[in-house]
Design brief:
heterodimer, A: 55 residues, mainly alpha, B: 716 residues, Cytochrome C Oxidase, Chain A, Cytochrome Bc1 Complex, Chain D, domain 2, two-stranded antiparallel sheet, 66% helix, 3% strand, globular
Chain lengths: 55, 716
C-alpha cells in the first residue's frame, strides 16, 4: 500500500494547511503583543539568569 | 520576581563537569578528524591520485565521511558540551541522571564510529547528510531520546522556575531533530546494511531537503544560538542586548526555517508552488536571523574594547558575524535568478563553509577557550597561541571561501556561455580544468584552518595538564516551591516559559505546520507528479547498478537533474520531468556538479566508453579529475540480494509483475551477457557477473525512458 493512501484517508485534510496558517498568524500576533506589553522587570530578571552563577 | 524561589532554604548540590569535559574532548578529537577528511577530499579534487585507487579512500566515500564527521561528530559533540554545561547552571540543578549522561555520551561516540566504518565500506542510503543505514538510524533515534529524557528530567527537577531563552532553543532542537530524523529516515530494509527510502523521486526530494535544510537549521543553528545566548553574555559578563528580541527571534526562526527546504530544489522537477513557498520563507528568514545576529553582537555594547585583548570574544565576534553573513547570503541564494547561477556550483560550498567554519567552528573554539580553563581551575596555557589560532583560522576561512565564490560564479557562467553562432562555448571538461587553481587555493585555506585547530588542541592539552579538574562543582540554590504564586498581570507566554513540556509541544506544532503544508499536497495531488507511460521500473541488473552508483557516492559529484535552461538542454538534453523519477528510491538528483549531469547519459556513449572510463577516467577524458574504479572490474555483483531488492521495491509500490523476484536473477544474467557481448565486440573481455556490467546497465538506462516516449509519439 502506498503512503499516499494513509494521508488521503484523513477526513477533511484539505483544511489542514488553512488551519495551520491561521494558527501561525494568531500565535505570532500573540507573541508580538506579549513582547511589547511585557513588564520590564520581568525581562530584566530573565536576562540576568546566565549571570547569576559565580563561575 | 524570585519570591517563589526565596521562600525556601538553600539546597546544596553539585554540577556534573565530567560529562562536559568528555563532550569537550570528543569535540576536539572529532573536529580534527572531520576537518582532515575534508582536507583530503579537497586535495583529491586537485590530485586524483590521492584517491589511491581504493574503494575505501575514493572521493565519493570520503566526502560523506567529512560531512557526517563535522556535522554530527564535531558540531554534535559541541552542542552537547554547551548544553550540558549551560543547562545545569541555568536550571540550578545537576543533570537528571549521570547514568543517562554516560549512555548519551558513549552511545553518540558509538554512532560516530559505526558511521565512519560503514561509510568507508560504502554502506549508505545515498541521501545527503542522511547517509547512515537503518540500524544506525534507529540507534541515533534511541540515543537522541536518551538526550531528551536527560534534558527534560533536569528541567523538571530544576531550582529556577523560568526557562532562559537558551533552553527554548535546546528544546526546539531536540523535538525538531527527532521529527526530521524519523520522517526522513523512513526506509524499508533489504538486509542489515541496505535499505531503500520509503519515498521516491519528487516526494523523496522534498522530504530529503526539508530534512537537509533543517539539519542546518536545527542542528547547526538553533542549538548554537542557545549556546550563543548563554556563553556570549557569560564571556562579556553582561546580559543579552534585548531579551524581548530573543523571544521574537526564537519563535520566528523556528517557524520560518522549517518551510525553507524547497529552495534547494529551484528549477528542478518539483511543483512550482513548493518552490515559491521555499523562496518566500527563505527571504523572510533574514528578519529573525539578523535579529539574532544583532542581539548577539550588541551584547558586546560597551565592551568592544575588550575584544582587543580577550581571544574568546574575538572568536565570538567573528562567529556571530559569519552567522549574519551566511544568513544574508542564504536568502539571496534562494532567489530564483541568483539560484540559476549558484546552484550545482562551488558557490554553495563557499556559502556553507562561511557558516560551518565561521559560525559553528569559531563559536565552538570560543566556548572551548572559555570553558576548559574554568573546568580545570586555571588560566589558558597561552593567550598568544590562541590569538594566533584566531588569525590563522580567520585567514583560513577567507582563503577557503573567496576562491570558491570566484570559481563557482566563473564555472556557472562558463556553463551558460554560448558562441555568437549559438553553440555552447565550453566543453564541461574545460570548466573543470579552470577550477583547479581555485580548488588548490581552497585546500590551502582549509589547511590553515586545520592547523589552527591543532594549535588549539595543543594549547588546551597544556592548559589541562597545568590545572586540576573539578568533577563536581559545588553549588547551592533554593528549591522551587510546589505551588506557583501568579503575579497580578501574568501573561500567557510566561505560563509557557514555566512549563517545559507545553513549550516542547508548542514548538513541535509550530515546526510541524511547515512540514504538513509542504508535504500533504505533494503526496495527495496527482497533478503534482504527472505520470509518464514510457517510464518503467529498473531491470534487476540496472537496480544492482544503481546500488553500486549509490555505494560509490557518485551523487556527491554528479547531478541527475536537467534544469529547464537553454544552456542545460543544449548540453545534456531535454529537461527533467517529475514523472521520470517515480521509481527512484531514493532520488539521486544531487546538489553539486563537480562532474557533468548524468540524467540523460544513457545511450550517449558506447558501453566500452563507460568501461574504460570507470577503469581509468583519463583514458577517455584528458585531465579528468574523477577517481578510477578498478575494483568494479574485479568484484562480482551480489546476485543473492536481487530477490530481496525486487521484493522491497514491490512493497514500495514499484510495479514489477507478481512473482517477478523469482525470475529476476535470470533476467539479470541475460541482460549482463548482452552488455558483456557488446564489450567483447569492442575488444574488451570481461565476465558478465562483474559489478562494472551492472553499473554500465544503469548508466545506459538513465534518461532513456523519455526518449522512448518521444518515439512512441512519433509512431502514433
Amino acid at each position: 500500500m502506498k503512503f499516499i493512501n494513509y494521508l488521503a484517508s484523513i477526513t477533511g485534510i484539505g483544511a489542514y494547511p488553512l488551519v495551520s496558517l491561521f494558527i501561525f498568524l494568531l500565535f505570532f500576533i500573540a507573541v508580538g503583543v506579549f513582547v511589547f506589553k511585557g513588564r520590564k522587570e520581568y525581562f530584566k530578571y530573565l536576562e540576568e539568569l546566565p549571570l547569576s552563577n559565580n563561575d | 520576581m524570585t519570591d517563589n524561589n526565596k521562600s525556601h532554604n538553600l539546597e546544596k548540590f553539585s554540577y556534573d563537569n565530567t560529562i562536559v569535559k568528555w563532550f569537550a574532548y570528543a569535540t576536539i578529537v572529532w573536529g580534527i578528524v572531520g576537518m582532515t577528511a575534508g582536507l583530503l577530499a579537497a586535495l583529491q579534487l586537485v590530485f586524483p591520485v590521492l584517491n589511491l585507487d581504493l574503494p575505501y579512500t575514493s572521493y565519493g566515500r570520503v566526502r560523506p565521511i567529512h560531512t557526517n564527521a563535522v556535522i554530527f561528530a564535531f558540531v554534535g559533540n559541541g552542542i552537547f558540551m554547551g548544553v550540558y554545561y549551560s543547562l545545569q547552571r541555568l536550571l540550578k540543578a545537576r543533570m537528571f541522571s549521570d547514568f543517562l549522561s554516560k549512555v548519551h555520551f558513549w552511545g553518540w561516540q558509538l554512532i560516530i564510529v559505526l558511521a565512519a566504518v560503514t561509510l568507508v565500506l560504502g554502506k549508505t542510503t545515498g541521501k545527503e547528510y542522511a547517509e547512515l543505514e537503518w540500524p544506525i538510524d534507529i540507534l541515533i533515534a534511541l540515543i537522541w531520546v536518551v538526550f531528551g529524557w536527560n534534558m527534560f528530567g533536569t528541567i523538571l527537577k530544576r531550582r529556577e522556575r523560568h526557562l532562559y531563552v537558551a533552553i527554548w532553543f535546546y528544546i526546539a532542537t531536540f523535538v525538531t531533530v527527532a521529527m526530521l530524523h524519523i520522517v526522513n529516515s523512513i526506509e524499508i530494509p533489504v538486509s542489515f546494511w541496505k535499505s531503500y527510502s520509503w519515498y521516491a523521486g519528487v516526494q523523496d526530494a522534498l522530504v530529503q531537503w526539508w530534512y537537509g535544510h533543517n539539519a542546518v537549521a536545527f542542528f547547526l543553528t538553533t542549538p548554537y544560538l542557545g549556546i550563543m545566548y548563554y556563553f556570549v553574555p557569560k564571556a562579556v559578563n553582561r546580559p543579552v542586548y534585548s531579551y524581548r528580541l530573543s523571544i521574537i527571534h526564537f519563535w520566528a526562526l523556528i517557524f520560518i526555517y522549517i518551510w525553507a527546504g524547497p529552495h534547494h530544489l529551484l528549477y528542478t522537477a518539483t511543483p512550482d508552488w513548493a518552490q515559491s513557498l521555499g523562496v518566500v520563507f527563505s527571504v523572510m528568514l533574514i528578519a529573525p536571523s539578523w535579529g539574532g545576529m544583532i542581539n548577539g553582537l550588541l551584547t558586546l555594547r560597551g565592551a568592544w574594547d575588550r575584544v582587543r585583548d580577550e581571544v574568546v570574544l574575538k572568536f565570538f565576534v567573528v562567529a556571530v558575524t559569519a552567522y549574519g553573513m551566511a544568513t544574508f547570503e542564504g536568502p539571496m541564494l534562494s532567489l530564483k535568478n541568483v539560484n540559476a547561477i549558484s546552484h550545482f556550483t562551488d558557490w554553495t560550498i563557499a556559502h556553507v563553509h562561511v557558516g560551518a567554519l565561521g559560525w559553528n567552528g569559531f563559536l565552538t573554539f570560543g566556548v572551548l577557550y572559555w570553558l576548559i580553563p574554568r573546568l580545570f581551575q586555571t588560566k589558558l596555557y597561552s593567550q598568544k597561541l590562541a590569538s594566533m589560532h584566531f588569525w590563522i583560522g580567520t585567514l583560513g576561512i577567507v582563503l577557503y571561501a573567496v576562491p570558491l565564490y570566484w570559481a563557482g560564479i566563473m564555472q556557472s557562467l562558463m556553463w551558460k556561455d554560448f558562441t555568437p553562432e549559438g553553440q555552447l562555448r565550453w566543453q564541461f571538461m574545460d570548466t573543470v580544468t579552470k577550477m583547479m587553481p581555485f580548488y588548490a587555493a581552497r585546500a590551502v585555506g582549509g589547511t590553515l584552518y586545520l592547523v589552527g585547530t591543532v594549535m588549539m588542541a595543543y594549547n588546551l592539552v597544556k592548559t589541562i595538564k597545568a590545572g586540576s579538574f573539578v568533577a563536581n562543582e559545588e553549588a547551592e540554590a533554593a528549591a522551587l516551591s510546589t505551588t506557583y504564586v501568579a503575579h497580578e498581570k501574568d501573561h500567557w507566554h510566561r505560563a509557557i516559559e514555566r512549563r517545559p513540556v507545553q513549550l516542547m509541544i508548542l514548538s513541535l506544532v509550530v515546526v510541524a505546520i511547515g512540514g504538513i503544508i509542504e508535504f500533504i499536497p505533494a503526496f495527495l495531488v496527482k497533478s503534482n507528479i504527472p505520470t509518464i507511460s514510457s517510464v518503467k521500473p529498473y531491470t534487476p541488473l540496472e537496480l544492482q547498478g544503481r546500488d553500486i552508483y549509490l555505494r560509490e557516492g557518485c551523487y556527491t559529484c554528479h547531478s541527475q537533474m536537467v534544469r529547464p535552461f537553454r544552456s542545460e538542454t543544449a548540453r545534456y538534453g531535454e529537461y527533467s520531468k517529475a514523472g521520470e523519477f517515480v521509481y527512484d528510491h531514493p532520488f539521486q538528483w544531487g546538489s553539486k556538479r563537480t562532474g557533468p549531469d548524468l540524467a540523460r547519459i544513457g545511450g550517449k556513449y558506447p558501453d566500452s566508453w563507460h568501461f574504460n572510463h570507470m577503469q581509468d577516467p583519463t583514458s577517455m577524458t584528458e585531465n579528468s579529475k574523477m577517481p578510477a574504479y578498478p575494483w568494479l572490474l574485479e568484484d562480482q555483483v551480489d546476485v543473492s540480494s536481487t530477490v530481496g531488492k525486487i521484493k522491497a521495491m514491490q512493497k514500495l509500490g514499484v510495479p514489477y509483475p507478481e512473482g517477478y523476484a523469482d525470475i529476476a536473477a535470470a533476467d539479470m544474467e541475460k541482460q549482463a551477457r548482452v552488455i558483456a557481448a557488446s564489450l567483447q565486440n569492442d575488444g574488451i573481455t570481461i565476465e558478465a557477473d562483474r559489478e562494472i556490467i551492472a553499473l554500465i546497465a544503469y548508466l545506459q538506462r538513465l534518461g532513456k525512458d523519455i526518449k522512448g516516449e518521444k518515439k512512441e509519439t512519433a509512431e502514433k
